[in-house]
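Why do we care about 3D structure at all? Because function follows from shape, and shape follows, mostly, from sequence. That is the central idea of this module. The next example makes it concrete: a single protein chain, its amino acid sequence, and then its structure expressed as tokens.
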Amino acid sequence: MTRTASALFLGTALALAALTAPVTAAAQAQPAIVYGQTHAEAALTEALARHIPVGKMRLELDSRAVELRAPAGAAVEGGLRVENLYYSPVQARFAAELVIPGTAPAVRLPVAGRAYGTVEVPVLVRRVAPGDLITAADVDWVEVRADQAGSDTAASDAQIVGMTPKRGVPVNQPVRLRDVQSPRIIDKGAVVTITLETPVLTLATQGKALQEGGRGDTIRVLNTQSNRIVEATVAGPNLVAVAKPGATVLK
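And the structure:
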């Protein structure tokens, strides 16, 4: 090979190396895509939403060492995907696989934990004795599992403020509506006024309370004029109202 040909060959080789070297270095420098616990919780929360439709979701992974790493240069398609999801509402437990889509072979990680909805409910911050009124200062809020807050659980402070306990209500525990009542404003045996209102007239007569009751309670009352027993709603101190005209004869 002549000196001229050798120099030409060497120059061509160096030029090719200069063109390919940056591409190779860029490929090697491309970092791997890493998904951690935050990504895992976001993907699982979205996937579990249809299983836990009520309340604010709480998710607890059994292991906090969650990491999925896509190989450098992998054509990752979107974020993490949840597959093979199983959820038990009774145990509030789930199991699933987290997958990085677009990797070959697919990068997978099995995960498990607890997930449940929560709601805030009012609780008493001090012990209130039966007969004493519950005030706004007596109430605080706690977070409980939504499936443990039944229809008998107070959901707002308006349902308990101004009421009085029928019996001891535990402190810092959800308040059951059946454990509180309106303050007693009619005593058993008290003389009461029975009223009946219609669009065209208002009638009133005297009666005797056969039960005690608070405002809004329905109690049994004896109409002392007709000697009939009726059910009436406590409307005020020693005042009851008959809702249905056919429920009593006020004469």
